[in-house]
Amino acid sequence: MDEDNIIVLNDESGHEARFEFLDLIEMDGDEYIILLPVDQDDESRGEVVILQVEDVDGNAESYVGVEDEETLEQVFTLFREKYKDEFDFID
């Protein structure tokens, strides 16, 4: 794993979580980041996190969870298509 691709995010409680940045997907004028948690347990191994990128005052970015299941599925479908030859996706 390339440490250059590791980002650390803080949740609302201030807890840090490390993620490997996989990609930035643009869809319908919005941007979504695809992240792979670095410290996963065996049960959730390989599950990605999709967050929407929001601009904050033009200088910084914020990442927010995506509530809409349809949007999540569409973003993940775009990610799957783009990386179908690089990752083994499980249906």
Task: Explain what the structure shows.
By secondary structure, this protein is α+β, with helices and mostly antiparallel strands. The chain is 15% helix and 43% strand. It has one helix and five strands. The protein has one helix spanning 69-82, and strands spanning 6-10, 16-27, 30-37, 49-56, 60-65. It has a five-stranded antiparallel sheet with strand order 1-2-3-4-5. The radius of gyration is 14 Å and the shape is globular. The protein starts with 5 loop residues before the first strand and ends in a 9-residue tail after the last helix. The model has no long low-confidence stretch (mean pLDDT 87).
In short:
The protein is of the alpha+beta class and 91 residues long. The protein has one helix spanning 69-82, and strands at 6-10, 16-27, 30-37, 49-56, 60-65.
Give average pLDDT, whole number: 87
Number of helices: 1
Poorly predicted residue ranges? none
Q: Total strand count, please?
A: 5
Q: List the strand order in the largest sheet.
A: 1-2-3-4-5
Order of helices and strands: EEEEEH
Bulk shape: globular
Residue share in helices?
A: 10-25%
Biggest sheet layout: 5 strands, antiparallel
Distance between the termini: 25 Å
Compute the CA-based radius of gyration: 14 Å
